[in-house]
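Researcher: Quick test of sequence recovery. Tokens follow.
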């Protein structure tokens, strides 16, 4: 399915499957999944503890993508910042609101990649689930702001820094 969609739009990038840890936290499931060159998607502070345990066992290296979805309470943000500060360069927190951004800015010592949750569809009648979920017209105003804070210089055009997490709201 993904190959067909990628071919239709002549997508030249890579496809990286991310196993969603909330689907099963059982070690035997994660161990089997990791045999297939996958990456990880987290949704809670507990999931970051799983990342650390898998790394200590030699099952997960720091080059894997760690996509951090879900609403981020304080402990989850602290754990994400810990990954980033400890050399997990492919950790990508997907932001739901400005509070998450400012908390990460305060807690991280390293530059990091970010995702911004945006609404893929807008029929004008649906309530957004998070206070920061963006609709397409807002992206051009928000992107330079985030780029300035995390990269340290303003930009004129988008590149691959941001991974946008789409949701149908």
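Model:
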């Amino acid at each position: 399915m993904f190959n067909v969609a990628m071919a239709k739009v002549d997508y030249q990038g890579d496809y990286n499957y991310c196993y969603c840890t909330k689907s099963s936290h059982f070690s035997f499931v994660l161990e089997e999944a990791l045999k297939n060159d996958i990456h990880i998607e987290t949704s809670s502070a507990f999931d970051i503890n799983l990342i650390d345990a898998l790394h200590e066992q030699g099952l997960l290296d720091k080059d894997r993508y760690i996509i951090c979805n879900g609403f981020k309470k304080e402990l989850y943000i602290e754990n994400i910042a810990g990954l980033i500060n400890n050399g997990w360069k492919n950790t990508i927190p997907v932001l739901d609101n400005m509070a998450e951004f400012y908390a990460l800015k305060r807690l991280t010592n390293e530059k990091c990649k970010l995702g911004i949750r945006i609404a893929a569809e807008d029929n004008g009648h649906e309530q957004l689930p998070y206070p920061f979920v963006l609709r397409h017209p807002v992206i051009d105003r928000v992107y330079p702001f985030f780029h300035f804070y995390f990269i340290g210089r303003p930009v004129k055009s988008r590149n691959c820094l941001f991974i946008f997490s789409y949701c149908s709201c």
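The domain at 15-167 is CATH 3.20.20.10 (TIM Barrel).
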